[in-house]
Write a structure and sequence with these properties.
This protein has 2 domains: about 5-165, no CATH class; about 180-215 and about 250-320, no CATH class. The N and C termini lie far apart (about 65 Å). A two-stranded antiparallel sheet has the order 1-2. Strand 1 and strand 2 form a beta hairpin. It has 11 helices and 2 strands; from the N terminus they run H-E-E-H-H-H-H-H-H-H-H-H-H. The chain has about 325 residues and is mainly α. Helices cover about 65% and strands about 0% of the residues. The chain has helices spanning about 5-60, 75-125, 130-165, 170-175, 185-195, 200, 215-225, 230-240, 260-275, 275-285, 300-310, and strands at about 60-65, 65.
């Protein structure tokens, strides 16, 4: 192996580790980063232990009073090191995928990895075990081929899903369950501390099919005076001064062929249960007033809607929602 390749691989491994830790810190905070960091430290200790053991045995060291001779066909230490780093990277990557995409996406990514490992292992198993260089060349070729094939399949699935309008909303649910908004707005101080009702901001929810998002002007009624020192309020005031809309990222979305009328549902449940409109919102949106970041709490799929209609003696014919 060329001498310069080892330090280059070492630098790439260290850089990749810190990059991965940075991503984990951004997505999961201190606790997740500490957990991953401890795992990496454990992997490093394993590598160091393997290296020490290899050096000890190569110098004629004994274990339990017996001299151990290393097999002549044993992989060089750098192969073992790269194997440990690769495994650690895979787990780090799966952890990041789980945080960003949830259970389903992690299972899909894990299946691709398993398929890739089986392809690589099956190919290497047909090669003479004594020819290490040939095995490594084949490993590189098969690994690259597996990566390209898996990547092509993933891109095809995602892009194909995006192009099929019927699945737009399901793809968005995977990637945008708790999107990062342009302004870090939290409902907690507004609802729990100030006691602001949902209808005060979402004013059309009781009269129209959609629940309106408050315009920037409505927010400035209070925040030209309240909490003006906050950096997030600074973004709001800057948008107002520059006459720019705030591009909020949508959290809840139904397919284009489904029509949901907020006014009808708010009116029905308010009369049925004798509660204000704000209490009805939680049936589909969860306890938004306690959320630091708004996230989708219910699977707004057909079964969820049909079950609710049946439980409340509402019509379930197709034209009720699909028209």
């Amino acid at each position: 192996m060329p001498k310069m390749l080892i330090p280059i691989l070492s630098i790439l491994a260290v850089a990749g580790t810190f990059l991965g830790l940075g991503i984990v810190f951004v997505t999961s905070g201190e606790n997740g980063t500490i957990g991953i960091g401890l795992g990496i430290i454990g992997a490093v200790l394993i590598i160091a232990g393997l290296r020490a053991l290899e050096g000890y045995l190569s110098r004629g060291g004994k274990i339990a009073g017996r001299k151990i001779t290393l097999p002549s066909g044993m992989a060089p230490f750098w192969v073992l090191t790269l194997a440990v780093i690769l495994v650690a990277t895979i787990f780090l990557g799966l952890g990041t995928v789980f945080i960003l995409g949830g259970n389903n996406f992690t299972v899909i990514a894990g299946l691709f990895i398993i398929v890739g490992v089986l392809i690589v292992g099956g190919s290497l198993g047909r090669i003479d075990s004594g020819d290490m260089n040939k095995r490594l060349r084949t490993l590189a070729i098969v690994s690259v081929g597996s990566l390209v094939g898996a990547s092509f399949l993933i891109v095809t699935l995602v892009v194909g899903g995006k192009m099929a309008g019927h699945f737009f909303w399901e793809v968005d649910q995977v990637f945008l369950q708790t999107p990062t908004q342009p302004i870090a707005f939290t409902h907690v101080p507004h609802v729990q501390q100030a006691g602001i009702d949902c209808v005060f901001c979402h004013r059309t929810v009781t009269t129209q099919p959609t629940a309106s998002i408050p315009p920037v002007q409505q927010c400035t009624f209070c925040h030209k005076i309240i909490a003006t020192e906050s950096p997030e309020i600074g973004k709001l005031l800057a948008a107002w001064d520059n006459n720019q809309p705030i591009e909020w990222i949508r959290v809840h979305r139904l397919p284009d062929h489904v029509r949901f009328v907020h006014e009808a549902h708010i009116t029905f449940f308010s009369a049925k249960d004798g509660v204000p409109a704000s209490a009805v919102c939680s049936l589909c949106h969860g306890d938004v007033g306690a959320m630091e970041e708004v996230s989708q709490q219910k699977q707004l799929q057909m079964g969820f809607c049909v079950d609710c209609h049946r439980n409340n003696n509402a019509p379930t014919d197709c034209s009720t929602c699909h028209y």
